[in-house]
Amino acid sequence: MHELSVAQALVDAVESLIEQNGARAARRIRLRIGPLAGVVPALLTSAFPLAAAGSRCERAELDLIEAPIRVRCQTCGAESEAAINRLLCAACGDWHTQVVSGDELLLERVELDLQEEPQEEPMETLNYGSPP
Amino acid sequence: MCDTCGCNLTPGNRQFAYKPVEPSATTVSVLKGLLQKNDDQAAHNRAHFDARGILALNLMSSPGSGKTALLEATLAALKDEFNCAVIEGDLETENDAERIRAQGVQAHQIVTGTACHLDAHLVHDALHHMQLDGVDLLFIENVGNLVCPASFDLGQHLNVTLLSVTEGDDKPAKYPVMFRAADAMLISKTDLLAVLDDFDPAKAEAHLRELANPAPVFRLSAKKGEGLAAWLAWLREQLTAQRARVAQGRTRLPKIQPDGVRLHTA
Questions:
Q1: For the ranges A11-15, A42-46, A127-131, B245-249, which has the lowest average pLDDT?
Q2: Mean pLDDT of B145-161
Q3: Which residues on A lie below 8 Å from B209 (Cβ)?
Q4: What sections of A21-107 are H helices per DSSP?
Q5: Which end of chain A is flanked by fewer CB atoms within 10 Å, N or C?
Q6: Is residue B1 less than 8 Å (CB to CB) from chain A?
Q7: Which listed CATH number (3.30.559.10, 3.30.2320.50, 3.40.30.10, 1.10.10.10) goes with A1-68+102-114?
Q8: What distance, in Å, lies between the first and last C-alpha atoms of chain A?
Q9: Mean pLDDT calculated for residue range B142-158
Q10: How do residues A33-83 score in pLDDT, each as one tens digit?
Q11: φ, ψ for residue B222 (rounded to 5)?
């Protein structure tokens, strides 16, 4: 399975957003995943902490939105919901349809933390054991 | 359902569950495909193929459905007509590449170790070991697996998915992501249909149509040389179409490209 490489791509993408926006970290990440993308949300959820370890996404919450499968019929023009292995038009039953939703693997939205890095404590206050 | 873990959130009430963004935070909207790096590399690979007028095909199937045997029969029939090259993907061994080289055809083996699919970067590295000038047809034999290979664009123009009659005829219904990505479906090992009468090629084709896939279906036996003519004719047609596209400065994306993403980013 390839969810870990998807998680790594996600961390890379969010890291560059953090960079572009001059932010400190990501707080919340929203992904849209369709069943036809071939990525299992539960496996991606378990892979994410491994990919994010040590990065500025480490503390981010991951929201996975499962997109419904919708098809548009090229014969009758109707748009309807469909099952992953039956992409038929619900109105007329024809198989000449186009998937309009359900195969996405999209990074939709990221909430970024803009707070300044806390100032480092001055060195001398840490030197408890230093000789006078 | 419980109120603590969030499992009672539905698409209908989800918006109420979000806390407003705190003053120290900002929200950016992105709508970006997560396989962007792979897809960029794939586009780069495809540009290499188009610049040389090469038609690139990605062969996908379960292990043992006869991809290498199909290539051997195809190359035997076409190698005097066209300049062919093959990229082989397997977890271990050079066995398949050696079978292709025995035909006098250039082959490069990608040994993936434990990776269950090829990606655009692996294919790009392989291209650096190959002589592409003058090549007409490039076959990329993906790792035998009906799941992961369907999610990665390699830079090919066409996907060919094999289904052997020793498997179930309901494979397209069980592995919809893979079979939806097929630009052609090959029912292989048809010489065994006489003894494996529980595989119905018509049912396999019906399951493919239920995935809204109009791809042509070819029934053939590489071992016995049956049904190859229609497949070879399709390859010739596709190469002609590729040359026409290249002449007009256009390219062709394989069916693997998700339509939904395109509609979202349009």
A1: A127-131
A2: 96
A3: 95
A4: 41-52
A5: C
A6: no
A7: 3.30.2320.50
A8: 60
A9: 95
A10: 999 999 999 999 999 999 999 999 999 999 999 999 999 999 999 999 999
A11: -65, -35
Window 43-62 of A: residues touching B by CB (8 A cutoff) are none
- Which residue(s) pair with B107 in the sheet? B86
pLDDT by residue (tens digit) across A80-128?
999 999 999 999 999 999 999 999 999 999 999 997 655 555 555 555 5
Helical segments of chain A, H only = 3-20, 41-52, 123-126
Q: Which amino acid is at B34?
A: L
pTM of the predicted structure, to 2 decimals: 0.87
Query: How many Cα atoms occupy the beta-carbon half-sphere of B19 within 13 Å?
Result: 9
Chain B residue numbers touching A31 (CB-CB < 8 A): 34
Q: What is the CATH number of the domain that holds B228?
A: 3.40.50.300
The structure tokens 């349809």 sit at A97
Strand positions, DSSP E, B153-207: 158-164, 184-188
Contact B140, B118 (CB under 8 A): yes
Whether B20 has a pLDDT exceeding 90, the answer reads no
Q: How far away is chain B from the Cα of A128, in angstroms, using its nearest Cα?
A: 34
Q: A57 and A29 in contact (C-beta within 8 Å)? A: yes
ipTM above 0.85, yes or no: no
Closest residue of chain A to B145, computed from CA coordinates:
A1
**Was A96 annotated as part of a binding site?**
no
CA distances from B62 to A1, B29, B175, B179 (A): 15, 39, 11, 12
